[in-house]
Write the structure tokens for this entry.
Amino acid sequence: MDRVGSISALAAAISHEINQPLAAILSNAQAGLRFLADEQPDLDEVREALRDIATDDKRAGEVIRRLRMMLKKEEHNRESFDPNSVIEEALDLVRSEVILRNVSLEKDLEPGLGAVHGDPIQIQQVVLNLLMNALDAVQEQPVDVRDVIISSRWEGDDRITVCVRDSGTGIDPGKLEAIFDPFYTTKHKGLGLVLSLCRAIIEAHGGKLWAENQPDGGATFYFTVPIARGKMITPIEKTIDT
């Protein structure tokens, strides 16, 4: 039963994680077809759409490879990287969703943050999932109050904090911790694995992930990760196993 449960959880995680790049591939392919249907196609726009398709295809492959590594307990890719660059890339990936949903997305990234040592693809997945959650949270709000803000800040001298804030209805105070439990979800079609996986990734990087309601409405998700000091991160599979 444990093995069946693990396989089900992994299958659900893969389904969720690759859904976003696949959706981006479809969106760019449709955009490219529309450009080509014009009497005088803008070839620069077509090339840009094709470049985005190639980028998202590689990203989907990387997500699958990292999840397979997690299952087989292989060594993860660890490197020093700029957290703001990872955030910027995640923002590019949700750009079309922001436009389609008529959301105001603001970024407030502190320049010159120290490098983080770990897996940039995994951290990008965390940022991307938190952004998508925020977009879902404001979906039913009036158009003029669909606001999402992402920020990064120094926290002391040894870590950074990333915040994703939305103007939604907030989270039931009694469920602020339960939302990180595996298979717990407040969404009609949710699997309840996204936030659990995000917390496992952040904790494997020596950080924390939590949520708070804002006094003026909406919720904010925070995560901290330490600045690189030459110490390797804990493999994520150990966090999940425990």
